Predict the structure.
Amino acid sequence: MTGKFFRKLIDLAVFYFAAKNFKQLPDTGLSKLVYDILEKKSGNLVFQQIENIRNDLMKDNSVIDFNEMGAGKNGLGRKLVSEIAKSSLSPAWKCNILYNTTIQANPGFILELGTSLGISALYLAASDNGTVVHTVEGNKSVAQIAEKNFQHLGMSNIIQYIGEFDEVLNNILAKNPRIEIVYLDGNHNMDATLGYFNKILTHCTDETIFIIDDIHWSAGMNSAWNEICNHKRVSCILDLFQFGIALLDKRYSGHFKIIKKRYKPF
Ligand SMILES: C[S@@+](CC[C@H](N)C(=O)[O-])C[C@H]1O[C@@H](n2cnc3c(N)ncnc32)[C@H](O)[C@@H]1O
């Protein structure tokens, strides 16, 4: 435990010294994109409503069936909704980045693997610019709560699928979609991540954006991330330590560690 903690601390220090804020990027086009995605404070009225839902979930002490899924987890059990809300959901700052990415890319089709209680899907759907979010969750009782949250906010542009990622993904891809934003936020192990990436890639456009969570969570995820970074279709990499963004768009190139300006102003 202590060894792992210090390893993480060292990784974070190495990241910090190598990281650049948007102003320090060599290319002005990329600098603007990073500013727009990372720094822009987006004022969408629906954010407060989503955060109200998050707060209610964090206080919800009802117990639901919970099938642990994903890397290093397995087994059927029961869990407090509040516990799931506190441990699984993308925080508001990350959701803001997801939303900003949808504003930049103006996508028709977003794919999310890992709905959980639906918070990140709500942010991905919030721009409501003709975007449809397709989100997949293997845990039925969790997905049912997400569905209620989508209905509560009247988000009819979210299509929810319940099932194992691999199986649902095959069904989605069989319909030949053009996927423009991908958020991989579940089952963080090397083979699974590379499997999803390679499958989805066959349905991407030249401008698709991949957002992949927990890229440095384990040695396996580090390897998966390195392989993604070196893939011939990936043209630009933004490593934000907790998650990574891989751009296929050839207008952008290079591999950068990125940090918000307020954490590293000079
Ligand atoms: C980190 S949570 C997603 C959080 C959500 N994106 C958010 O930020 O609001 C990951 C979810 O992926 C689901 N999951 C993990 N592995 C899965 C698999 N192989 N098939 C289906 N669902 C899976 C888990 O049940 C969990 O709810």
